[in-house]
Amino acid sequence: MRAPAFFDARPPADGLGKRGPDLMFKKILIANRGEIACRVIKTARKMGIKTVAIYSDADAQAMHVQMADEAVHIGPPPANQSYIVIDKVMAAIRETGAEAVHPGYGFLSENSKFAEALEAAGVAFIGPPVGAIEKMGDKITSKKIAQEANVSTVPGHMGLIEDAEEAVKISKEIGYPVMIKASAGGGGKGMRIAWNDDEAREGFQSSKNEAANSFGDDRIFIEKFVTQPRHIEIQVLADAHGNCIYLGERECSIQRRQQKVIEEAPSPFLDEKTRKAMGEQSCALAQAVGYTSAGTVEFIVDGDRNFYFLEMNTRLQVEHPVTELITGVDLVEQMIRVAYGEKLKLKQKDIKLNGWAMESRLYAEDPYRGFLPSIGRLTRYRPPAEKANDKRAVRNDTGVYEGGEISMYYDPMIAKLCSWGPTRAEAIEHMRVALDSFEVEGIGHNLPFCAAVMDHPKFVSGDITTAFIEEEYPEGFMGVELPKETLARIASSAAAMHRVAEIRRARISGTMDNHRRKVGKDWVVSLQGERFEVKIKADKKGATVKHADGTKQRVSSDWTPGDSLAKLKVDGEKLVLKVEKISGGFRMRHRGADLKVHVRTPRQAELASLMLEKTPPDTSKLLLCPMPGLIVKVDVEVGDEVQEGQALCTVEAMKMENILRAERKGKVSKLNASAGDNLAVDDIIMEFE
């Protein structure tokens, strides 16, 4: 077999892609940003390969820029003026002499024109051949190929759709509900579910707009939305010598707006027979299109384990770490080796699934505001320590740091927290502790929600579908109500911690003579509507906390006042709390609950019970901007009567369009913003009579 062009030791005519005489790339450019750029750099460094980062104005101080050996500025913050401008990326390659390019995911990772430009310049693309990208990267084309290869597919309309009315007609023929998808889409962008004609019209236009803005391609197709589905995908690895293997599956059913939130490997639902069938079918499809590199074949699986091909992602998946954790295979390294032309050293019989892995995606989205995007500076960013042994592993793939800025121009995902354990139950428990230990301040984020999912009975049992979030949190996420036994453990801990703080305050020098302060033993702890009367007996090793019902709890910890993270043991069991001092106690966060914990003397508690609670201001007649963003359009005018559920305006943030709707009937009395305005959180968009 003739070696690919990039093995030629002679430099191409334009000087791009010069290579050394030894058997691996000397330098690769990462055509991406954020955590995936950092992830690729780590493997390249391990392999002894130098790296080049590219960056926009917004990313001048980004982590991937600091980690790379070289960095090239490529333009303004918007991706369509920097990261996805092929000419600018090619200029960076020319400037640095990079021999190969890893595209990460998103941006140019599945852009056949970019792959063609690299091929023409003699630069290796660390991904599949152009033909495979064209055939599988386009959802419409890939469906047709799958059908021709006798792969079971979901019913749908594979042709292009001209306008909203045609979308409605096709939707009726397929039968509601339907999924409206961008042909070039990914990451949940350009996707809508429609249950009726109105939603089909509205979803078609929104999907088309998002697709144009995110991918520069507004083609749309429609398929049947399968109810009660699971989203399960197969990781494949193929070389240019005809070898292809599968590395098990990933369960990706915990999604919000078709955007994955939590993934795991393997799936708690599949049996070995179904896994083998899906894996073999995935490899057959990959080989049918001449695929090479690390790709993913996605399926929708029903309750009877019937599976249907959805699409093939020809690039590295966001959730690839869970596969790496259960197989021990570095997928980025394999991609680089395949791109260099090496044969796969792994055979299918070598792939053993070891233990269980979980991934929680940390998004800059505020779960208490309907998961709307949140931007700003990370005033605190302290991930749990990474570790790995034969009993547990914690891994955090990230591209941010404390003091860094979360930009409005890019995807809201800022980290991927992963855990591994010998069993699913152990992997979940390790994830719970890791989430409790992850400190993030300065922005809204979804850590509380991820923690809540880890404790949800349905998730723990593995009884999940892609409708999990909308079914279990129909009114949105409002925090977690902890069980009373957990509140009792927190109350004991808070009392012991408060006692330590009080003793420190009592020892402050410069106090008046004969006014020595005495710290008592009796306390009343109130949190989440519960009241615990406790008595503390302390010694050098900890404190014994006795409750009013006679039960005792032993609390030990090395926490000192001012620490933002408390790692305690209550009756020998771990308890991790995020801690912030407030008047009369602490703000404590644990397992998705955000608690105001007041620790008072019995007399203080008696007086506090007589205090009136402050009521929040009335905003019922105002439409407030729920996140920083751009007003795309305003759908009403002053004097308009609006009905419940009616669209009022559209706000764009982090590449997603969000339609704001009326919560009740009313009449518009004033418009404070118009299309093109950039607004901050809680800016008033319009007022009602």
TrEMBL record:
Residues 610-689 form the Lipoyl-binding domain. GO terms for molecular function: ATP binding; metal ion binding; propionyl-CoA carboxylase activity. Residues 143-340 form the ATP-grasp domain. Pfam families: Biotin_carb_C, Biotin_carb_N, Biotin_lipoyl, CPSase_L_D2, PCC_BT. The keyword Nucleotide-binding applies. GO terms for biological process: lipid catabolic process. Its EC number is 6.4.1.3. Its cofactor is biotin. Residues 24-474 form the Biotin carboxylation domain. Keywords: ATP-binding, Biotin, Ligase, Lipid degradation, Lipid metabolism, Magnesium, Manganese, Metal-binding, Nucleotide-binding. It catalyses: propanoyl-CoA + hydrogencarbonate + ATP = (S)-methylmalonyl-CoA + ADP + phosphate + H(+). InterPro entries: ATP-grasp, BC-like_N, Biotin_BS, Biotin_carboxylase_complex, Biotin_carboxylation_dom, Biotin_COase_C, Biotin_lipoyl, CPAse_ATP-bd. Pathway: Metabolic intermediate metabolism; propanoyl-CoA degradation; succinyl-CoA from propanoyl-CoA: step 1/3. SMART domains: Biotin_carb_C (SM00878). It is an enzyme of class 6 (ligase). Coiled coil: none annotated. PANTHER family: CARBOXYLASE:PYRUVATE/ACETYL-COA/PROPIONYL-COA CARBOXYLASE (PTHR18866), METHYLCROTONOYL-COA CARBOXYLASE SUBUNIT ALPHA, MITOCHONDRIAL-RELATED (PTHR18866:SF33). This is propionyl-CoA carboxylase. It comes from Litoreibacter halocynthiae. The lineage of its organism: Bacteria, Pseudomonadati, Pseudomonadota, Alphaproteobacteria, Rhodobacterales.
